[in-house]
Amino acid sequence: MSCSCSFGDFSEGEGSIAQIKPEDQKPLPPPFDDLDEEPFFEQLSEEARNKYALLDDTIVVKIPVPATEEEEERLVNQFLSGFRKLLTAENNWTFLEPLMISLEHCAKCQTCSDACHIFEESGRHPLYRPSYRSEILRRIYFKYIKTGSTWVHGDIDLNWKTVTRLIELSYRCNLCRRCAQTCPIGVDNALLAREIRKIASQEMGIAPKELHEVGSVLQLKVGSSTGMTALVVKDNVEFIDEDTTERTGIEVETPWDKEGADILLIHNAGEIMAWPENPGAFALLFNAAGLSWTLSSDLAAYDGINYGVWYDDIQFARTALKHLEAAKRLKVKKIVVGECGHAHKAITVIADKIVTGDLNIPRESSMNILRDIVREGRIKFDKSRNDFPVTLHDPCNLVRLMGIVAPQREVIKAVVPEERFREMAPHGVDNYCCGGGSGFAIMSGLNFEHWRHRLPGRRKFRQILEAFQDEPMDIEHPKYVCAPCSNCKGQIRDIIRYYDAWETAGIYYGGLVELMVNAMEGVEPNYIDWEWR
Amino acid sequence: MEMVPYLVAYAGLGVFIVAVVMRIVMWVRMPMHVRWELYPVAHEAKKASYGGSYLEESEWWTKPREVSLVGELKVMVPEILFLVALREHNRKLWLHSFPFHFGLYLITGSTALMVLQGILSLSSGGAEGESALGSFLFYAIMVSGGMGLILGLVGSLGLIRRRLKVPELRDFSAPADYFNLILFVGVFGFSLLAFAAFGASFFKGVTAFVANLMFLNLTPFGAGIPALSVTTSVVLMSALLAYIPMTHMSHFIGKYFAFHSIRWNDEPNLPGSDEEKTIQKALSQPVSWAAPHIGADGKKSWADLATEGSDEGETK
């Protein structure tokens, strides 16, 4: 590895301060264990290197290099102004206490480091140590906000390079909070990464385009970050109903805007675009189980995503309110979130403390509904139809951050032969992030996708390979990675494609409801068609 | 001059109490924050073992929530006493940090026993020291105090060594981090030397000094070397006591809030709850974030911005 990662270096020098070398990385399990045959890692172009502020081998935020001293100063002043606001109850009551505890109490013991998949898979590169960016923020806090002694808290120079590199560095964390789980004191490096993102977005107007401009802004403007309007989404779902009917032999019709339904089901609209078999399976299962449910065509309510959860509290609140207002208008008893981890956490847990009165509508995970369908025997399943190896990915938002661990396993137990299922190691609340968390799965500008696969996604890929090591690793023996989260599914798809693991090792992926429909009695077989997409 | 050690001891204790109370008040007065729990949550009665939550229950808002204090204690007590998280995730550091912290607990326990001895002595007109209970208490004071000093010294020396030796610890350390540990070495080392030099009479002296402090009996403590070692030891300990809450070592307070207010705070906001009023108050605060998409002007509240949006935030 190559690195100039002392705290002094962070504010100095030209260009990127750290590079990953493939030989520093631990080889993957077979058949991907030859480091010399790792996929190509695209390098940044000279144009990009000259145009944007640099941190390491990639760029995601794309902050232009300031052209004048005034611009340099503006970056520093805006950052400090935002940091000061972050420390006020008016502007940041949402996270002030967690922020202060993490700023004030780190013992710098580095216990968090080994928990971080990015740090580990980088070959333990100092730049990706979870406490590194926190320590920079902490030193700025003590030196420039509290004007404390650097003898006590350590030194850092705050200039435009410090600011831009720190903002880029805040997007080298999946916000999975696995490191926070191990902290003996309760310090949360992921929270600090998110707070840095908030300064950038809420004060400086700086955020990755995929999250903001074509993310939360687009969703609040047209209804979905996919760009689908209500008319388009209805049309697409109608097509999905027809296709599902044809594939399963069972008539499927998705209800829209049904006032007084028990359930408002909110999907991640990415499912409708990329994995139509998922909303199709939901519709089939909910109808077959006799549930009273509906989708909503209200603005933003047919897309459960809430990208604000990754970078901006105000955008988060705006989106969450749209979801709740739709539920209120339809007079449903509850909102049920489809297979999307961050949508689960956003609407169920975080939004819990921003809603009152008639907007305080109960929210529940679809995992519970699916578990109840199985438990109550509302649908008959023939698990021999899923006679292939299956492993389960635990989405961080659903599991570590919400404690929904058992329902999806109860479903799998009912639809997959016991000897065919194997857990990843570790799993449950100790799981590793897929590598696409905190918005990474939808970010691919410049060469960020390559960095995403070579570092954050590598640990999940390693886990998947380890889970299937007792199976023949070829396409003749297909294996199923069940990922009940749209974001995780996208990342797992991308990493399988990056390593060509479908063709090479027969590794396929999909959601939970697809497994259920595949095992459903009375349904045409092979709902899972093993066609790469 | 003879009263100086007493005054320093009172000052040290006073500063410690005031600083700790101020810290606690600061955390208690923090505004409500959004939920940010992290599983496993220890008070989940039947689900904590695998990290599950009440959110796994169908229509969880219609069911009574089981919160297990025993579950919390089962995690908290071993964590406080044995630093379980550190042992599990950073065994090499734990080998030094555990004796350091456990030494502090033993010294605290020894001091508490001195206070108990003083109370018993008062109630028995000063004859308690000669009873079987008095003898037992004194040996307990001496053993816990002596062990505490040894463990604390070994632990703090080990922590200095590790901080100097391991690059990732060294790179993150400020001069004060070493100073803090050297301070512990100095204070524990001095008391341990005095104990080695004067044996049981050292702890007898400290116990008597603590009794004098308790009953405002500020009589001169003597001028000989044994007496001087007792007063110096108490002065050093008092200064250390006052210093701890001024530093990041006040994490023993912050840790409580980190766990109870954040990691394990899974309290739901049910419709009609008192919490809704707190939320409304929070949402009515003015926002001054400067990014154009926020649309803040220092007057519009969270509720305004979340519902109305801005031209660039595109909520309408």
Describe the structure.
Chain A has helices at residues 46-51, 69-86, 89-92, 96-104, 117-121, 130-145, 150-153, 160-170, 178-182, 189-203, 212-222, 230-248, 269-274, 277-288, 308-311, 313-330, 341-349, 366-375, 406-415, 448-454, 456-467, 486-498, 501-505, 512-518, and strands at residues 2-3, 18-19, 263-266, 293-294, 334-337, 363-365, 390-392, 421-422, 479-482, 507-510. Chain A is mostly helical and 533 residues long. Chain A has 24 helices and 10 strands. Chain A folds into 3 domains: 2-203, no CATH class; 213-371, Rossmann fold, CATH 3.40.50; 380-518. Chain B has 316 residues and is an all-alpha fold. Chain B contains 12 helices and no strands. Chain B is elongated and about 80 Å long. Chain B starts with a helix and ends in an 8-residue tail after the last helix. Chains A and B meet through helix 2, helix 3, helix 4, helix 7 and helix 9 of A and helix 3, helix 6, helix 7, helix 10 and helix 11 of B.
Strand content of chain B: under 5%
How many beta strands in the DSSP annotation of chain A? 10
End-to-end distance of chain B, in Å? 75 Å
User: How many independent structural domains of chain A?
Assistant: 3
The multimeric state of the shown protein is: heterodimer
- By secondary-structure content and strand pairing, the structural class of chain A works out as mainly alpha
The helicity of chain A comes to: 40-55%
Extract low-pLDDT stretches of chain A. Answer: none
Overall residue-averaged pLDDT value of chain B: 93
What is the overall shape of chain A? globular
The greatest inter-chain interface is formed by: A-B, 97 and 88 residues
3D shape of chain B: elongated
What is the gyration radius of chain B calculated from CA atoms? 26 Å
Number of strands of chain B: 0
Give the low-confidence spans of chain B.
none
The helix count of chain A comes to 24
* Mean pLDDT across all amino acids of chain A: 96
Distance between the termini of chain A: 35 Å
Number of helices of chain B: 12
Main sheet properties of chain A = 4 strands, parallel
